[in-house]
Amino acid sequence: MSRFGTGLSRALYVAMLAIMGLMLLAALFGAIITVVALVDPSAIEGLRARINGQDVYMRQPELALTVGLIMAIACTFFVAVLWQLVGLLKSAASGQPFTADNVRRLRILAALFVTMMLVQLATLIMPVIAQDLLNARALRLDLGTLFAALLSLVLAEVFRAGVALREDVEGTI
């Protein structure tokens, strides 16, 4: 791999680690909001969230609980996706992208995308706690997540074929 490609992979790796750190902090904040809403609902009354373009004050403990859980779950999924991408970048930077580990990482990415889509679908089906704040028009299924899952599965198969080809070539040398 060229020095430019390796340098670019390293820069992306560092950027992803920084983003993962920020997302972990956001997930922690969401978890803290959830715990506080469960333990002492009056403590969260001054908090404000932006939902569907509206500023919402957390006067209802159920709303704070919902926002905290959604924030924690979304950030955790995001970090899990980034973790797999960091692994892919590390192996690309080392010059060995076609490995069994990368096939596994791509399959995990596909599973994460499918899980995200199922969670999204569940939010469409479940009764909405704050009906006046969240309406059905704002909750729609994103088919881009399904596309990302299918693309990850296709890439996993391409990488699996690359691993088999590399092993075959190494066996003949």
UniProtKB/TrEMBL annotation:
Lineage: Bacteria, Pseudomonadati, Pseudomonadota, Alphaproteobacteria, Sphingomonadales
TM region(s), chain numbering: 12-39, 63-86, 106-129, 141-159
Keywords, ordered alphabetically: Membrane, Transmembrane, Transmembrane helix
Protein name stated in the entry: DUF2975 domain-containing protein
InterPro entries hit by this protein: DUF2975 (IPR021354)
Keyword Transmembrane: yes
Keyword Transmembrane helix on entry: yes
